[in-house]
Design goal:
CATH architecture of the largest domain: Alpha-Beta Complex
Low-confidence stretches: 1-13
Strand content: 15-25%
Strand order of the largest sheet: 5-4-1-6-10-7-11
Shape: elongated
Number of domains: 2
Mean pLDDT: 90
Radius of gyration: 27 Å
Structural class: alpha/beta
Number of strands: 17
CATH class of the largest domain: Alpha Beta
Length: 479
Amino acid sequence: MTQDLTTAADTRPDGPAPWRPTRTVAVVLAGGTGSRVGLGIPKQLLKIAGKPIIEHTITVFEAAPEIDEIIVLMAPGHVEAAQQIVDRAGFRKVSRVLAGGDTRNATTRLALDALGPDDCNVLFHDAVRPLLSGRIVRECVNALWSYAAVDVAIPSADTIIRVDADDCITDIPVRAQLRRGQTPQAFRSPTIREAYRLAAADPDFHATDDCGVVLRYLPEVPIKVIEGADENIKVTHPVDVHLADKLFQLAAAQAPRLTDERAYTEELTGRTIVVFGGSYGIGARLAELAQGYGAQVFSVGRSTTGTYVERPEDVEKALREAFDATGRIDHVVVTAGILETGALAEMPESTIEQMLQVNFVAPVTIARLALPYLRQTKGQLLLYTSSSYTRGRARYALYSATKAALVNLTQALSDEWSEFGVRVNCVNPERTATPMRTRAFGDEPEHTLLAAETVAQASLDVLLSNLTGQVVDVRRAGA
């Protein structure tokens, strides 16, 4: 660390002054043009999992309690597009969206100018690493209390070779000593400023990252390495877009719990919730829970109200009756489903048709008919998937396939409906003790199953959150 300790020798403290930053700033570096992706627009503006890549990235820092401010450095000519994303998402920590430079190092210099003169922590992160975790952000910031420079890296799973101009091997370094660098890279601002000041005087200056600048020009400064994550990939090539999209699909969000019972009552009193499939199981428990907190719940189902979700006229009637009674619909929940097991080739046509209609066509119909009501309240549609959505399983292929379709529907509609302020999420519960599961698999050990009440509580938390386009896992404690 370099600090200005210009006090007289007899008054200088025994050690360096303790580090006291005024704030912690995340700088999102989005200056790339995406030429290697080959899609004609900057790669950070490509959509994955229903949102632009840069929006996913900013969201991580927005949610991180360690971050006080976010500055975005965008590719020249696309600043307005980035600003629109920031405004639409309502990011409160983003203070500025600025044009980046011609190179990574030039963009860093612009960011340092934007920070101002105060001593602060600064994290530089590639905008096209949208799968950054809160854990990495937290550990980087914590490390800055002890180190002036911090990098993020993961061990190399591959053997690394060094070659000459003819592509012949000249060396095979010891893999245990090698790491693959990621971002963010974090610094105490005086350190990175000094490194770039020295670099500016070097006519041969060139570095591919900011830690490299510190390593070259301030070799006495230790650079602490924080463990990264395999999923913290950089979207650089076309295949990376598909990989990131799949990783987002498999990643599970968590809905925050409210502080106490009174908070739930304050949030839910006066809201209207329509639950399709509320006759029993998760839907019934959710309806009971929400009613207990003061919500007006209209729970409909085949066995209780004679509502068949596969019939558009039944769906429209249920929605209209709820709206006529309360003047609003805030949330629409679809827990209705059919689980029939057996080999697909041996399954009766009538069973196939019913499963497709109830498990997929019905949620599509409900979504279409519910949108006009949800637009008025900027409400939420909540769907349900199954752990089988990630990989189809023998003897319930149709169930797995329809549950995978609901995940895709969730992510697509969250994008389509974002302009209306309507949120769409999907709950993915572990095996749950419901009558539907008992009919399909018989009695199972109670300790291996989630209680329907647990899933209902998690569902309520999702409804009260700002999440959208997310698959929210619900697991047994300790599982």
